[in-house]
Amino acid sequence: MLSSPAQHAMSCKNEGGDASDSSLWGGSSSDGDSGSGSDGDALQPAIQALPFNISGLFFFRNLIDQPLQDDIVAEIASQKYFDRERDQVMLFESAVSDTSNRCLPTWTNSLISKLAALLQDQVPPSVHELLFSSQARAGCDVDRQLRQLIVNMYRPGQGIADHVDLLTRFGDGVMICSFLSGIAMELKQLSNNQHVSLWLPAGSVLILTGDARYTWTHGIEARMVDHVQLTSSRSRQTFRIARQHRLSVTIRWMLKVADVLSDTTQSHLRA
Ligand SMILES: O=C(O)CCC(=O)C(=O)O
């Protein structure tokens, strides 16, 4: 049984190059960091849809509508998670029976239940069950799985190293929700070097289960610009899109054996 608090904040290295003001991160306009990323000129453009099936991967480009995105961003801003030094927060659901300690912040539960409704007819029932069934038993089943969420705020120029979510800490079924702006995520197969650069716009949700969760890495290059191939029914064009601040919420299950509070590995991934 975990005796952790429901909320636990961790900071990580800042390498962003943007100095904008925002109620989200409480930084002043004299932030002053210089960008560490290249502008990605030599790169393959990111694409809007997968060119081939990746088993266990589900991608929804426009799942979270603008009002819900705005609500979630406002809720995150009101929590004041971020400042000049902190751009990542980890939220843990706790198994301790003291209810004041058990709960995740309300906004996370509201996001998760909205995702459950939005994905109801969009993913196979077995995947929906993997992502949400334990949640439905919240409060009445001591053996249910517990959630862990990471809220990442990326300044332009920041990224996260390619990784597979820790096998010893997190279960199957990971949801990555994007807010504020898009970013190119690199998906790389461990066994044979297949590589896809996928454009994750604000409002998108990427779901990693099975092979996609265990045999592919995901990561974000630290750079200032993404090249993105946008396709319509009539044309396909590549655009150079300057990175802006991006928020992501990653929702996972903790493994029962995981001592996640002593783990800082994930925060080391940010660059
Ligand atoms: O921010 C993202 O889009 C991905 C975050 C992630 O993979 C992680 O925190 O482990």
UniProtKB/TrEMBL annotation:
Signal peptide extent: none
One record GO biological process: DNA damage response
Domain of life assignment: Eukaryota
GO cellular component: mitochondrial matrix
GO molecular function: 2-oxoglutarate-dependent dioxygenase activity
Residue ranges of every copy of the Fe2OG dioxygenase domain listed in the record: 145-255
Region span, Disordered: 1-42
Pfam families reported for this sequence: 2OG-FeII_Oxy_2 (PF13532)
Low complexity composition bias: residue spans: 17-33
InterPro entries: AlkB-like, AlkB-like_sf, ALKBH7-like, Oxoglu/Fe-dep_dioxygenase_dom
Protein name: Fe2OG dioxygenase domain-containing protein
